[in-house]
Amino acid sequence: MKAEFIMKEKFILKAGLSLFAALIIFTGCPDKNNHFSAAKLKCEYLVDPLGIDTKKPVLTWQMDDGTMGASQSAYRIIVGTDSASVAKGKGEIWDTGKINSDKNLAEYSGNPLSPFTRYFWGVYIWNGKRKVSDISKVASFETGMADPANWQGSWISDSRDIHLKPAPYFRKSVMIPGKVKSARIYIAAAGLYELYINGERAGNSALEPAFTRFDRRVLYIAHDITRHLKDGENVIGILLGNGWYNHQSLAVWYFDEAPWRARPRFCLDMRIAMNDGSEISVSSNTDWKTSTGPMVFNSIYTGEHYDARLEQHGWNMPGFDDSEWSDAIPVPAPTKNITAQVMHPVRITEEIKPVSVTTPFPGTWLFDLGRNIAGVSSLRVAGTKDTVIRMKHAERIDKKGFADQSNIIVHYRPQDDSDPFQTDIFTLSGKGEESFRPRFNYKGFQYVEVTSDKPVTLTTENLTGHFMHSDVPAAGSVVSSNDLLNDIWKAANNSYLSNLYGYPTDCPQREKNGWTGDAHIAIETGLYNFDGITVYKKWLDDHLDEQQPNGVLPAIIPTSGWGYTWANGPDWTSTIAIIPWNIYLFYGDSQLLMKCYESIKRYVDHITSISPDGLTDWGLGDWIPVKSVSSRELTSSVYYFADAVILAKAAKLSGRQDDFIYYSALSEKIKDAINSKYLDREKGIYGNGYQTEMSVPLHWGVVPPELKEKVAANLALAVKENNSQIDVGLLGSKAILNALSENGYHDLAYTLASRDTFPSWGWWIKNGATTLYENWPVDSESDISLNHIMFGEISAWMYKTPGGIYPDEEMPGFKRVILKPKFVEGLDHFEAQHEGPYGKIISSWERKDDEILYRVVIPPNSTASLLINAKEILEGNKVPARNRYIKISQEVDGTSVLNLQSGEYNFRILVSR
Questions:
Q1: What is the spatial distance between Cα 423 and Cα 249, in angstroms, rounded to a whole number?
Q2: 605: phi > 0 → left, psi -120 to 50 → alpha, else beta; which?
């Protein structure tokens, strides 16, 4: 049973600029029991990962304790190679002993890890009363190659002809005498692959390995294939796809001319441990057999062509006659840098049935999935032999009811009609009902136009859409009394996931490029909503691979070489600083920030070398504004400032005192230069007073403290004078809602966020959007992909303003949660949840007449500071002793801070206007 503690404190609060009286009533719960333990153990942010190369992997856990005020005072990590021993608290590899720390993150520093070894680990924790828990449930991680020298296999392919269109198939027969204890396959591929063992797919991921700069880094993946193997003959089957390695389709980014381009290839090692203690090794070499087959063409950019008449049934199974197949050929490795892919893979996460099908013309069917997705479609159909079926994917339909690709095909440069855009071609064998689903391609679409050159019968049951993306776990949710706001949040999530394929992209149809600006604008949206650290760690490796010696980064990453001289600049390629910094804030892990430190430094130093006066106009500016074109020099210089600030903070964190002093001074120099040229101090206006020009300096901390109130008031006035409508592009969309909300105009920010008239996010939803668009007009003639994430900051704003959830820079990773909820006018209810490193944070409020009922949940081993604006605390600033989980302090500016320990709190705020 829960005992209740009730605290009554009378406040006179000031919310924004409105004065109201408030009474806060708190109800809490005492300790349920004394049981607690470490839970949710992860290595490198994955559960029981397989095939890691990191010499000092990061180990994390959460505290499972339902008592109020639960905290960890110490921990002890046990690592060993025997799970039973670790479960008993014994580990021969690493025993930290008792470490007095409240942190739930540790970098492995035990005995050197051996390759191809499974390690088990567990954690003891001590609570705030110095009592120790039982050891946690045992978790594991398994090392992979560890060193490129451990590879035994050779790189092989079927040809050196980059123009050869049919995909290569490979097979290898292996005799296994007896029962297998465990078996692993390690496979590195340049291009894409599917792995089969005795006819079964190994794993359920797709588009593996992830896209990299192939001549500088290739990823490999470890597979546990133990269950697939049997006594006797076993067959390994490999199907290779082009991916971005052998890009045969032509578009404006010249991936067909990439310096790494070659016929797809792979290298494979199989290690089998037998029950009798013996070991069997199998590697890729020229005794593997190869042939082409029914996949007659594949392009990651356009589509796949599959001719079922060419199927070789049983090609990847024992007993198949491969006497007509050729020997594989040796080929060079794309690079010596072959590293483990340690991240959440791309998977099909949802199957979607069409909501309707129409026939705009005989032999043509138009399927509508009812929502825009990234992924593929599959078809089941029966027809006569030689029937050719085309599956054309689009985001829109024209007036006659056909698929309309005009908004997404603009950058494609085909030489002929043999490779139609976003179109799969399926030729039937005539052997009953047949199925087709692309393996090495994905698209962005809502509609699928199916045409057949011979009679077939199709209904909504014949086609399925498959939503596919990096399968990052959900980490947040938002729900409110405003259905439009809820739909915008869902659309932002759909766009974010649609553009996550081992790297963040701009759109899943027209480009599929890793645009840097889109990614850093949406970083908070990504991290509030999803546990995406593994993808960003991989993508920052891509940054390090692409950075030139002078510090310059390309606008798209990875790139074939395009983007070093146009579209980059600090307003775009600040990803190198902004993303590692946000990872540090959200996870409390400084590893990525430190890994990128020298790259950030080279980048900032390059901007300094070309901008000695502290100002730079290098960049794209406020991309796709509604109407007002803001100063590019102003916005680019602000991002230059932001990068210098992050670099100074990173220097301080890492003990680089000289760098801290230098880059702190540089950031001040940049700020002074911006304000000297663009700030009218008397009027409190930047530049021409456009919304972007006002909000960007406010959001990024450029405005002098004594002028913030005046500048914010002028920003609010500019918005109101524009009929309370936004007039911003990409950079302004990041700043405007935050700049208003952080400076007392949260109600006005909510007005912008919840509008359903042009231009607004709600205007898209009102016109049928289920994802976010690339341009404010829904009928724009250009730049109108219907699935873009670049305007996605609005989702993060929901967590920060009505939700009030912020990480604390002084105690990152939500070790201490900053809560600053704004009870905006127009909402009756709002709830935001975020699963941080310490557990679930909940900030939920409901309006009841003149009351706000506010519920807060703070996870174990973390704390929170709840900020409330108050002129006076009528009953003093000291909580009665019985309410030991809250302390109240008063700041000079009148803001009351309620310092909360972990647990659940319910406040009632009585307001009178």
A1: 13
A2: alpha
**Tokens coding 105:** 């993150």
Verify that 487 and 618 share a domain, yes or no. Answer: yes
Q: Give the tokens for residue 388.
A: 């050719």
Range of the domain at 422: 347-470
Helix 533-546 with 575-587: angle, nearest 10 deg: 150
* 265: nearest Cα among 186, 158, 161, 337: 158
Residues 203 and 326 in one domain: yes
Calpha distance 297→616 (Å, rounded): 46
Of 228, 214, 225, 114, the closest CA to residue 155 belongs to: 214
Long-range contact set of residues 838-842: C-beta below 8 Å, sequence gap at least 24: 838/62, 838/63, 838/104, 838/813, 838/814, 838/862, 839/62, 839/63, 841/805, 841/814, 841/817
* Tens digit of each residue's pLDDT (9 = 90 or more) over 330-355: 999 999 999 999 999 999 999 999 99
HEC profile of 146-178: CCHHHCCCCCEECCCCCCCCCCEEEEEEEEECC
Q: Which residues, at least 6 apart from 633, have a Cβ–Cβ distance to it below 8 Å? A: 615, 616, 617
Helices 575-587, 597-610: crossing angle, 10 deg rounding: 140
Each residue of 584-620: pLDDT tens digit?
Answer: 999 999 999 999 999 999 999 999 999 999 999 999 9
Q: Is residue 884 very low, low, confident or very high in pLDDT (cuts 50, 70, 90)?
A: confident
Residue with tokens 């900053």: 818
Buried b (16+ CB within 10 A) or exposed e, 480-518: bebebbebbbbbbbbbbbbbbbbbbbbbbbbbbbbbbbb
- The values of phi and psi at residue 513, to 5°, are -95, 150
The C-alpha angle 311, 315, 320, rounded to 5 degrees, equals: 120
Determine how β-strand 364-382 pairs with β-strand 463-470: antiparallel
Q: In the block, which residue shows the tokens 């203690």?
A: 277
Query: In the predicted model, what is the mean pLDDT of residues 41-64?
Result: 98
- HEC profile for 695-749? HHHHHCCCCCHHHHHHHHHHHHHHHHHCCCCCCCCHHHHHHHHHHHHCCCCHHHH
> How large is the average pLDDT for residues 568-597?
98
Q: Looking at the structure, do residues 331 and 391 belong to the same domain, yes or no?
A: no
Rounded Cα distance, 250 and 261, in Å: 13
Indicate the pLDDT class of residue 908, thresholds 50, 70 and 90: confident
577 domain residue, yes or no: yes
Residue 419 in any domain: the answer is yes
In this structure, the answer to whether residues 77 and 184 fall within a common structural domain is no
Gap between the Cα atoms of 72 and 65, Å rounded: 10
DSSP assigned state of 479:
E
Q: What is the pLDDT of residue 579?
A: 98
Q: What is the mean pLDDT of the chain?
A: 93
- Which amino acid, residue 435? S
Name which of 689, 678, 697 is nearest 720 in CA terms: 689
567: DSSP letter: S
Q: b/e per residue, 587-611, with b = 16+ CB within 10 A? A: bbbbbbbeebbebbbbbbebbbeeb
**Nearest-5° angle of CA 297, CA 299, CA 301?**
150
Query: What are residue 640's phi and psi, to 5 degrees?
Result: -60, -45
Name the percent of the chain in helix, strand, coil, to the closest 5. 20, 35, 45
The answer to whether residues 463 and 523 belong to one domain is no
Residue 812 lies in a domain: no
Residues ≥6 apart with Cβ < 8 Å to 476: 528, 529, 530, 799, 832, 833, 834, 835
Mean pLDDT within 227-231: 97
pLDDT over threshold 80, residue 666:
yes
- Cβ(784)–Cβ(511) under 8 Å? no
Q: What angle do CA 706, 708, 713 make, to 5 degrees?
A: 130
**232-241 and 200-201: which strand pairing?**
unpaired
Residues 129 and 171 in one domain: no
- The CATH number of the domain holding residue 674 is 1.50.10.10
